[in-house]
Design goal:
By secondary structure, this protein is mainly alpha-helical. It is built from 20 helices and no strands.
């Protein structure tokens, strides 16, 4: 299927029938486009849970037979719609900077074009940046495959002659960081054009800051990883079993610890009675601390993540300075996650099972982590909040992938992750 138009014009759902000069293939392509546009609108406005064949066919003005002629399930249609959005965005990235010779200028132009498209069609932006991730952990891998297109397009925008290609995990992280910027900085339609251009320039500077250290520091980072493999158990563990019992006497802490333990079986296996039994508390005690099951589950993740990050980055500074301290913290995180893959899946995957609130919790955590990083930065080396949040979102995306693949020991991904330490330090202060 080509670069199909997702225009929001009133003719979006017109019916085409085969006739003189109009083939069955053209009619079928139009039907798929209408179904995909309907998917975007429903998921963006009502959430993934509202996506049904009946709603889709009614909005797209096609029969159920036509729907099943193109897609086996609504999930398949949902993924096709997301892939189409990514394909269009990738083409915009590639075409926007073709007239620019200098990499940064190409990148600024390309990112600005993406932001223009988001402002022109807020439903597509909401669908791709917020609603699609909230569909749940089952879709993480498929959504990542489509998003890879954007990473390849960004790599092309950065290419200088025949220079080295960025590692795929790092490209995926950069796409996640750029999406984070899009969510947090361009939510308001009323933002002035000049402000959008400034954000595009800041985003380009952040991406450029991630490139040089990947090549320059490969040997040092490899040595850092190897030297820490024999460093013993994690010092600031957050998922290890002995730290999951909760503080005796602290009712809320015991409930949170029980919720986290049980969530390793899957978010949808959690119930309030099970948590109460595990924690040894009454239902009224649970209700005194939490509004809902969802509230308890997300609080258990949020407090544990913040505790770990705070403990790891505020330990004894490394000899190599703040950048080395961040590298050490990232390696500490990698070893901790490797020691408990089930706990890692809770934090990076099961969090999405909570839907929109799970995505909001993830974004809130990214902001908190970025604030912690900035608060520990030496004077004169503090990155902008945009750069810190984008780098944190990028690192989160890499860890999410490793949680899905259960491969935290893989050196390639660990190297890409560690590269964010020097990158944050190198990001220009604004």
């Amino acid at each position: 299927m080509g670069d199909t138009d997702l225009s929001t014009s009133s003719r979006r759902y017109r019916r085409l029938r085969p006739g003189p000069g109009l083939s069955r293939e053209e009619v079928a392509a139009d039907q798929r486009t209408r179904l995909q546009r309907a998917t975007i609108e429903i998921v963006a406005t009502q959430g993934y849970e509202a996506l049904t064949v009946r709603r889709l066919t009614k909005r797209a003005r096609v029969s159920s037979g036509t729907f099943y002629g193109h897609y086996r399930t609504t999930d398949e249609c949902f993924l096709a719609a997301f892939d189409l959005v990514c394909r269009r965005a990738s083409k915009r990235l590639l075409s926007a900077g073709r007239e620019e010779m200098e990499p940064r200028s190409r990148l600024v132009r390309a990112i600005d074009r993406l932001f223009q498209d988001s402002a022109a069609d807020p439903q597509v932006a909401t669908f791709s940046l917020r609603s699609a991730p909230a569909a749940g952990p089952a879709f993480v891998g498929d959504l990542r495959i489509s998003a890879k297109r954007l990473g390849l397009a960004l790599n092309a925008s950065l290419a200088i002659n025949d220079g080295p290609q960025l590692p795929p995990p790092l490209l995926e992280g950069i796409v996640a960081g750029l999406a984070r910027i899009g969510r947090t900085r361009l939510d308001e339609d009323e933002r002035a054009e000049v402000e959008r251009e400034e954000v595009a320039a800041a985003a380009a500077d952040w991406i450029m800051s991630l490139c040089a250290p990947v090549v320059r520091d490969v040997k040092r980072l490899l040595a850092s990883v190897e030297s820490r493999r024999a460093a013993g158990p994690p010092r600031a563990g957050w998922l290890v079993a002995e730290e999951l019992r909760g503080d005796p006497g602290d009712e809320r802490a015991m409930i949170l610890a029980a919720a986290f333990r049980l969530s390793k079986r899957g978010y949808h296996q959690l119930t309030i009675p099970r948590i109460c039994r595990e924690a040894g508390v009454a239902r009224r005690d649970f209700n005194r601390h939490f509004e809902s099951l969802e509230d308890c589950f997300l609080s258990a993740i949020e407090e544990r993540v913040v505790k770990f990050v705070t403990a790891s980055v505020r330990q004894e500074p490394e000899a190599g300075g703040w950048s080395a301290t961040l590298c050490a913290a990232l390696e500490e995180l990698r070893r901790t996650l490797e020691a408990d893959g089930e706990g890692a899946r809770v934090v990076f995957l099961e969090i999405l099972a909570a839907g929109t609130r799970g995505v909001e919790c993830r974004d809130r955590l990214i902001s908190k982590i970025a604030q912690i990083l900035c608060s520990t930065a030496p004077a004169g080396h503090c990155p902008s909040m945009l750069a810190a949040e984008a780098s944190t979102a990028a690192a989160w995306a890499i860890l999410e992938r490793q949680a899905e693949e259960e491969g935290f020991e893989k050196l390639g991904a660990a190297l890409a992750l560690l590269a964010f330490g020097p990158a944050i330090n190198a990001a220009p202060a604004r």
